[in-house]
Task: inverse folding
């Protein structure tokens, strides 16, 4: 929330807004957390939507196959879903705790005469130079390189951790030239709005 600056009050040319979404199980409004355009309040919701929309697999989040098309009827209780509550929790917990890929900033220990594929031929000097240019070009205004997680996550392993998201976790209107046309089924969320991140 502290990163939000819808009207560019600080004059850095960056306008970012947080996104609020409706929890499909409770109808409560939550600050976004997940998804390409920050359209999911929780990992549980992300998993449930992926199951029903990508694989037509029902769960306690989306108990009806009709949820694949829209959100109507999402709250109708049912005794039988393809994925149980315990299985849904296990999937969400797995995604919560899966490790982030290591940043490719250190050269691997290949022998001097070995052929190295480009993705493993890391040059720390070039990496450092690129990092400085990234900051000088003010890319860090949107692509925030470092944040600290909160202290109230259910998993102790995820509390008060320094992370490198390269995102300010806000939505940005990229304009019609960069619009992808995907409004995530919510017309109020513009087709040009994206949550910015880069692979670091």
Result:
């Amino acid at each position: 929330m502290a990163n939000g600056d819808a009207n560019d009050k600080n004059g850095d040319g960056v306008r970012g807004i947080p996104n609020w979404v409706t929890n499909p199980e409770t109808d409560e409004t939550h600050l976004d957390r997940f998804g390409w355009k920050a359209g999911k309040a929780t990992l549980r919701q992300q998993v449930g939507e992926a199951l029903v929309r990508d694989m037509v697999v029902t769960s306690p989040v989306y108990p009806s196959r009709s949820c694949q098309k829209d959100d109507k009827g999402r709250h109708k209780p049912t005794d039988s879903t393809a994925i149980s509550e315990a299985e849904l929790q296990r999937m969400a917990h797995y995604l919560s705790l899966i490790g982030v890929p290591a940043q490719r900033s250190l050269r691997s220990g290949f022998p001097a005469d070995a052929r190295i594929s480009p993705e493993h031929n890391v040059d720390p000097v070039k990496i450092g130079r690129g990092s400085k240019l990234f900051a000088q070009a003010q890319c860090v205004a949107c692509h925030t390189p470092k944040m600290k997680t909160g202290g109230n996550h259910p998993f102790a392993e995820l509390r008060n951790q320094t992370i490198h998201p390269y995102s300010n976790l806000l939505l940005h209107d990229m304009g019609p030239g960069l619009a992808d046309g995907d409004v995530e089924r919510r017309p109020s969320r513009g087709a040009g709005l994206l949550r910015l991140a880069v692979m670091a």
